[in-house]
């Protein structure tokens, strides 16, 4: 789980104590907010969804439990860690009985706090089954990759509607950032299993010595450190969907273990004599071509054929440029609401520029760009002058821009003029000559399309001091 997406609220009447906790969590990358009283904490909780609340606790007061109830009315899945002075085992047990995940004694040891937070987040991610909350969390953190009308995305959406209600195994392939997990979740929500857990596993992060335990669970004493029974991903996803992300990076041992379960439909937790039935729909994803990986000996071909029943290929953003205007509007509305900003409008030339970029980070990169601009640009209109220089210059000189079926002629004309001024010459007379129109007509179109604030550039010809071509009659 990306720490930068984890929001933690620290509530302590002692500002120094609250700041100390916040500072101790900074190296871990969490987003930490601080409140000094319950009213402020509840107000913050109504503005953003907190994964975790760290609250000072006094066994003789009920404010901590009352606060927990108030915040969980807004976000039922929020976990609580209480911290108090002169804590006893009885106090800790009592606080946990009242709904806290953990109790720590002050002064808090940073390492102990991080460990407790990690366990609370694991618990939240793996066993929380409040589907309505999951939908709200996802809408606030994930892009709507289905926005737009490109044929490719319409085809994918139609396929999801068709295969969703079945239990067929699905393999999703696409570049990083194209939204493979979002497609997997969409399949889950269309299935009869939608009321059961959706469990995601990053296969690239599974070490060989723990693969079996992570996937199939273990019993107490199965190996050093196994101090209790623990469910694996297959048990946690029982009756639901198991999403195997980046399966192309799963080790050879992991591939063999997974293949055995897919073929037999049963598994045995590590150290256990009990055989359990695997009842989870499998959806796998990879940013690699698994068929080619199999031919090259880097992925088991028999496992590939087990997974490759229905394959969904998600196109990169550069191949669905016609969707970008809709995506921009959707993301802008989304992030304005999330960050409590007034509505912002992206100018036509900005959207046109976005359609010419290659977007190596795909939808994720576009989403992050829109969020940055929404947060950092105070005006309600975002133009080319507001874009980072690196983004403008990422459009290589001479790069052709995409003309998509259904684009308005005015949009094509505006983009042609924009690219001529931006990548060929900023000299209006020379640009008019290149475009085959009069300088007066060019000035009119520049004003009409809002291109008068394009950044000034110098072409190689201008730098050499070449004279501008003669103007046509009437200029």
Question: What does the model show?
Answer:
This protein is α/β, with parallel strands linked by helices and 475 residues long. It folds into three domains: 3-128, Rossmann fold; 151-314, P-loop containing nucleotide triphosphate hydrolases (Rossmann fold, 3-Layer(aba) Sandwich), CATH 3.40.50.300; 408-475, no CATH class. The chain has 21 helices and 14 strands. The chain has helices at 15-25, 38-47, 63-74, 89-97, 110-127, 131-141, 151-163, 180-189, 211-216, 233-236, 252-264, 290-295, 301-307, 324-338, 348-356, 362-376, 389-393, 409-424, 428-435, 439-448, 460-463; strands spanning 7-11, 31-35, 52-56, 79-84, 102-105, 170-173, 198-202, 241-245, 266-267, 276-277, 281-286, 310-313, 345-346, 381-382. Strands 2-1-3-4-5 form a five-stranded parallel β-sheet, with helices on both faces. Helix 2 runs parallel beside helix 3, helix 15 (348-356) crosses helix 18 (409-424) and helix 18 packs across helix 19 (428-435). The N and C termini lie far apart (62 Å). The model is unreliable at 128-133 and 457-475 (pLDDT under 50).
């Amino acid at each position: 789980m990306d720490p930068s997406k984890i929001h933690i609220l620290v509530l302590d009447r002692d500002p120094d104590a609250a700041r100390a906790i916040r500072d101790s969590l900074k190296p871990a990358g969490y987003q930490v907010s601080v409140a000094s009283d319950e009213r402020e904490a509840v107000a913050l909780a109504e503005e953003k969804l907190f994964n975790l609340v760290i609250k000072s606790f006094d066994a003789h007061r009920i404010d901590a439990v009352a606060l927990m109830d108030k915040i969980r009315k807004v976000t039922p899945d929020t976990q609580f860690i209480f911290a108090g002075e002169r804590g006893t085992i009885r106090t800790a047990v009592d606080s946990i009985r009242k709904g806290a995940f953990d109790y720590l004694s002050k002064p808090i040891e940073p390492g102990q706090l991080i460990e407790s937070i990690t366990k609370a987040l694991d618990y939240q991610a793996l066993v929380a089954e409040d589907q309505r909350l999951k939908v709200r969390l996802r809408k606030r953190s994930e892009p709507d990759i289905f926005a737009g009308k490109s044929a490719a995305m319409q085809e994918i959406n139609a396929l999801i509607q068709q295969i969703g209600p079945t239990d067929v195994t699905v393999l999703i392939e696409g570049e990083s950032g194209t939204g493979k997990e979002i497609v997997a979740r969409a399949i889950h929500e269309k299935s009869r299993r939608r009321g059961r857990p959706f469990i995601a596993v990053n296969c690239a992060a599974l070490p060989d010595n723990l693969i079996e335990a992570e996937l199939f669970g273990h019993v107490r004493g199965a190996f050093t450190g196994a101090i209790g029974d623990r469910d694996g991903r297959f048990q946690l996803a029982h009756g639901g969907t198991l999403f195997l992300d980046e399966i192309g990076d799963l080790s050879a041992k992991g591939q063999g273990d997974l293949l055995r379960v897919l073929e037999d439909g049963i598994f045995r937790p590590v150290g256990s004599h009990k055989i359990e039935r695997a009842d989870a729909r499998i959806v796998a994803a990879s940013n690699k071509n698994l068929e080619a990986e199999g031919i090259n000996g880097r992925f088991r071909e028999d496992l590939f054929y087990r997974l490759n029943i229905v394959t969904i290929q998600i196109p990169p953003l550069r191949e669905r440029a016609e969707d970008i205007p809709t995506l921009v509007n959707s993301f802008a509305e989304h992030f304005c609401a999330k960050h409590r900003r007034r509505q912002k409008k992206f100018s036509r030339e900005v959207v046109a520029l976005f359609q010419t970029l290659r977007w190596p980070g795909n939808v994720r990169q576009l989403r992050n760009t829109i969020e940055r601009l929404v947060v950092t640009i105070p005006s309600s209109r975002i133009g080319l002058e507001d874009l980072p220089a690196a983004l403008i210059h990422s459009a290589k000189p001479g790069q052709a821009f995409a003309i998509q079926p259904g684009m308005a002629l005015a949009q094509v004309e505006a983009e042609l003029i924009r690219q001529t001024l931006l990548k060929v010459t900023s000299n209006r007379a020379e640009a008019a000559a290149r475009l085959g129109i009069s300088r007066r007509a060019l000035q009119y179109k520049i004003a009409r399309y809002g291109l008068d604030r394009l950044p000034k550039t110098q072409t190689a010809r201008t730098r050499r001091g070449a004279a501008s071509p003669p103007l046509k009659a009437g200029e």
